[in-house]
Amino acid sequence: MDGEVVQFEYGDKMNLVNKLLKGDKVSLARAISKVENGEGSHILEALFPYAGQAYYIGITGPPGAGKSTLVDRLTNQLVDGGKRVGVIAVDPTSPFSGGALLGDRIRMSNLSGRDDVFIRSMASRGSLGGLARATKDVALCLDAFGMNYIMVETVGVGQVELEIADVCDTTIVVLVPESGDAIQVMKAGLLEIADIIVVNKADREGADRMVTELQFTSEFRCRKRKWGYPILKTIATQNKGIDELNSTIGSHRDYLRGSGGLEGGRRERIRRRITELIEEKVKERVQDNVLEEGKLEETVEGVYTKKLNLFRVVDDLVKKVIG
Amino acid sequence: MDGEVVQFEYGDKMNLVNKLLKGDKVSLARAISKVENGEGSHILEALFPYAGQAYYIGITGPPGAGKSTLVDRLTNQLVDGGKRVGVIAVDPTSPFSGGALLGDRIRMSNLSGRDDVFIRSMASRGSLGGLARATKDVALCLDAFGMNYIMVETVGVGQVELEIADVCDTTIVVLVPESGDAIQVMKAGLLEIADIIVVNKADREGADRMVTELQFTSEFRCRKRKWGYPILKTIATQNKGIDELNSTIGSHRDYLRGSGGLEGGRRERIRRRITELIEEKVKERVQDNVLEEGKLEETVEGVYTKKLNLFRVVDDLVKKVIG
Question: Does A321 contact chain B (CB < 8 Å)?
Answer without folding.
Answer: yes
